[in-house]
Amino acid sequence: MLIPVSVATRQTETLPCDILIVGAGIAGSALACGLRDRGYSVVQVELSDRPLDTARGDHFQCVVVEILEQWGALQAFWDAGAEKRHGAIYYTNTNEVLLNAPHAGLPIPHPYYLYLHHELIGQTFLNLAAQNSRYTLFRPARAREFDIGPEGIRSLTLKLPEDHPAPDGFTPGQTVIIKPRMVVGADGRSSRVRDVLGFEAQVHDYENPLVVLFAPRVEPDPMNNVTIFMSPHGTISRIPRAFGGWKVGLPIRKADIAFWKTATPKMRKSAIAQRAPQLESIDAEVGGFYPVKLLNTTKWVHGNTVLVGDACHAMHPARGQGMNVAIRCLAKLMNLLPDVGEMVDAETVTRRLRAYESGVKPAIDKVLADNHVRGEEMDSLDASVIARSAAAMKVINADTELLRRYRLQSAGYADAIGVPNQE
Ligand SMILES: Cc1cc2nc3c(=O)[nH]c(=O)nc-3n(C[C@H](O)[C@H](O)[C@H](O)COP(=O)(O)OP(=O)(O)OC[C@H]3O[C@@H](n4cnc5c(N)ncnc54)[C@H](O)[C@@H]3O)c2cc1C
Q1: Which ligand 1 atom is nearest residue 326's CA?
Q2: Which contacts qualify for 365-373: CB closer than 8 Å, 24 or more apart?
Q3: Residue in 310, 321, 367 to alter for ligand 1 test, most ligand atoms within 8 A of Cβ
Q4: What is the pTM of this model?
Q5: How far is the CA of 192 from the centre of ligand 1 (A)?
Q6: Which residues line ligand 1 (CB under 6 A)?
Q7: Domain 82-115+207-291+382-423 carries which CATH code?
């Protein structure tokens, strides 16, 4: 008997896979990219069909550039418009150099940061991920209905939206039951995966939100340096953007959000110049306001499921580490994953995930603790705290060995996480 197509295609479909990735922010999309030529069947579920928020992380540390090269992904970033940043310089608001930390000259394969808009980073990873013939992306689709047991996540039931095209082989409105051998929760700071598995987290809310502004460049800087100005009124950072722009970020009091929302260009100019007279010629538009949080889960693994990225370690953007730490962890996770043939053995999957957790989490706890100290410094609008951090930078700048170590650390080569090719 012939079944009408409209009925047949709407049946519930069961979709087994090796790896289910929940979320396609930078952590989820980078993982799908890194796995693309490893033979796994990968299913990814992303809630939003909009581009990622352009104001978020957009600079890859030198060590992450090395990881991109190892993944065969680096050229795709140049093709997408990525540019090189050659250093970071801290100034006082009276133009005294506090710390000058060039990346150039470091004994590493890629002595530069790579930067590209956040949403283009995500899209570049996803374009590469799609080279895997065993890759399916459900987007937009919300991962909500998990079947959970002691062995981890048994299945995810997805209802595909009626009003969006479905991936090949699926139809809008269809129900899909994904049965994964392994699950990666890459669903960000408000992670659903973390919550359904009952992971506990230590959370710290920083006092002051960040305001992010965008501006066209008004002066050339062939080094594309990040410049940070430390004044008694707070710090302010000017960060190069690809395609000829700057991102400006500063912590503000919550009560001042209203000011920044309604300020005229002239008022914005004078508020920026109050912190850094050097930036007075900048015409900046407000991009957004960001409450800042530290989040650190006590565990990463439950059975066949592991958390990555902001889902388990969200941090203050003071040192531009969140996205970078996520990718460095993924590189380590990928080294420990069972081969495709071993994925059928649930115990092997869990054992490898636990090895990843016990091997890497202590380093991340340390990175989070260090980042928290830097976060508190950047968060502070107290002149005496800012003066203390400025004095500490001068000490580093004046000592050749301390400065070398600082530069290596900011490149990602001298911190607790370690270097990809030295495992
Ligand atoms: C202003 C600002 C500046 C920053 N600057 C830097 C920087 O310079 N360098 C740096 O390294 N880091 C920086 N960061 C941090 C960095 O942006 C984050 O650490 C990183 O983007 C986190 O990526 P993620 O993929 O873990 O999480 P997210 O980007 O939050 O991605 C999670 C994804 O999961 C999806 N999702 C959520 N729930 C579900 C669900 N139930 N089902 C399906 N999908 C779901 C979301 O839609 C989202 O796309 C900055 C952050 C901010 C706010």
Answers
A1: 26
A2: 365/296, 366/415, 366/416, 367/315, 367/321, 367/325, 367/415, 367/416, 367/417, 368/294, 368/296, 368/313, 368/315, 370/415, 371/294, 371/315, 371/316, 371/318, 371/319, 371/321, 372/204, 372/294, 372/315, 372/316
A3: 310
A4: 0.96
A5: 14
A6: 22-28, 45-48, 55-59, 142-144, 186-189, 192, 210, 212, 290, 309-311, 317, 320-324, 326
A7: 3.30.9.30
Chain region(s) in the chain for CATH 3.50.50.60 = 8-53+118-205+293-379
**CATH, range 8-53+118-205+293-379:** 3.50.50.60
Written as tens digits, the pLDDT of the chain (423 aa) is 334 444 445 689 999 999 999 999 999 999 999 999 999 999 999 999 999 999 999 999 999 999 999 999 999 999 999 999 999 999 999 999 999 999 999 999 999 999 999 999 999 999 999 999 999 999 999 999 999 999 999 999 999 999 999 999 999 999 999 999 999 999 999 999 999 999 999 999 999 999 999 999 999 999 999 999 999 999 999 999 999 999 999 999 999 999 999 999 999 999 999 999 999 999 999 999 999 999 999 999 999 999 999 999 999 999 899 999 999 999 999 999 999 999 999 999 999 999 999 999 999 999 999 999 999 999 999 999 999 999 999 999 999 999 999 999 999 999 989 887 655
